[in-house]
Amino acid sequence: MTERLSSRSLSRLPTTVLKPFYDRAQITPGIVHLGVGAFHRAHQAAYVDDCLGSGETGWGIVGASLRSSDTRDALDPQDGLYTLAVRSGEKESLRVVGSILSLLVAPENPSALLDAMADPRTRIVTLTVTEKAYLRNAAGDLDASHPDIIADLANPGAPRTAHGFLLEALVRRRAAGTPPFTVLCCDNLPANGATLRRLLIQFAELRDADLARFVRDDVAFPSSMVDRIVPATTEADRARVAAELGVADAWPVMTEPFCQWVVEDDFPAGRPAWERFGVTMVRDVTPFEDMKLRLLNGSHSSIAYLGLLSGHETVAAAFADPAIRKFVDGLWAEAIPTLPQGAGLDPQAYTAELAARFANTALAHRTAQIANDGSQKLPQRIVASALERVAAGASADHLMLAVAAWIAAAEARGDVLPASHFTDPLDEGLAAIFSRNLSARQTADAVFDLAGFAKGSAHRGRLTEITAAHLETLRGKGATAAMASLDGVRS
């Protein structure tokens, strides 16, 4: 099949395929998105597509990759169009999304991206760059010693980092008399808007104190909570979608029916009417974010590491393992009491919905994909809950088994797991620790030091102790025995 999905082929797609019914030529850009990967295309870009379909013509997306050209190379020949495949059980519905008007690759032409961000029509810059791209040190502050931060300070006109692009574009808008855009973080960081605001102010202070005041006083950083499972696209997915479309799509996106977006409503320069299409606009996103991070993301990471150690390739296969399924219930029982009270949350209904989502065999969400970057994810997904539990005199055994499983899975790479099965920003330091053949307690202490887990907390020693006990069982008896050891532990 040689013909590609494109504006020309759009009208010939089967009637079973949903497609943009608006005139894309009449759409103007209003959003620049940094990190135009599969999640953005399954989530924010789909919501924007809904808004464009309702007649809001000023919110087209300029998508930018900060590292790889893969997305641009796949979608440019398709005029930015791609297929969103929503899968559940044996059912799959296809939708072609048209909200991405153009794609840029920052390393190839940083000036083009700065121009797009400085364009007065751009009123929102959104980000899905993953936790590690925020370049935080162990204390959670900006890592001012990172080579890319140093490079951006030395050469502001050719940034490498999200911080560099955001600040330089804001500087150029200020110089031109253009109001600042709103910065909307869509990554899984606690208080993600406030976190990015703090990091960007710290970055600005390294350039100029006046710039730091400008960012602090004049730029809006609403927080948001995003939720949709998006597994990696396979060649089989591409072949199946192409057969249904009748044309080839180089990079369709697979996802589930569930989709959630909760956003703090602080957009001085305006925004699309997202609430018309299911987005929850709120004054404070924190309760929703905490529930998602601790119940969905925390269990997802746990399923990934225990699944890898148990030989399960996908989330659905791991969740079908009775030992892992029972463990997840115990994890949720420990995490739920740490959630905000009186915020209108319904964690029991939420976890019931999560169980159905995890059991969706149509998604084939690989455990190895979820396992990436554990050192950046576990602090907010697992360790924060565990600290609250221990401080309250309650059990954190299920929570800390997740941390021990991450250590054990990282240690197993190159042995029972492939050497590069998943990656972590701290891999070099982890490898050095594992090479020393330390005891479980020594390993746990060294890893906590390296990753900054529970740094400064009076309860760090207790968390390390629990982790070490689990790690010893994982090393000697395996994942099933480690989970079985939790039988009878009171939540």
Give a verbal description of the structure:
The chain is globular, with a radius of gyration of 23 Å. The protein is an alpha/beta fold. The protein has two domains: 10-282, Rossmann fold (3-Layer(aba) Sandwich); 286-484, N-(1-d-carboxylethyl)-l-norvaline Dehydrogenase, domain 2 (Orthogonal Bundle). It contains 20 helices and eleven strands. The strands form three sheets. The chain has a five-stranded parallel β-sheet, sandwiched between helices. It has a three-stranded mixed β-sheet with strand order 4-3-9. A three-stranded mixed β-sheet has the order 8-10-11, with helices on one face. The chain starts with 28 loop residues before the first strand and ends in a 7-residue tail after the last helix. 48% of the residues are buried. A hairpin with a 2-residue loop joins strand 3 and strand 4. The protein has helices at residues 38-42, 44-53, 70-75, 110-118, 147-154, 162-176, 192-207, 209-218, 235-245, 286-309, 315-319, 322-335, 347-358, 367-371, 374-391, 397-412, 427-434, 440-451, 460-477, 479-484; strands at 29-34, 60-65, 82-88, 91-97, 100-105, 124-127, 182-185, 224-227, 253-255, 260-264, 280-282.
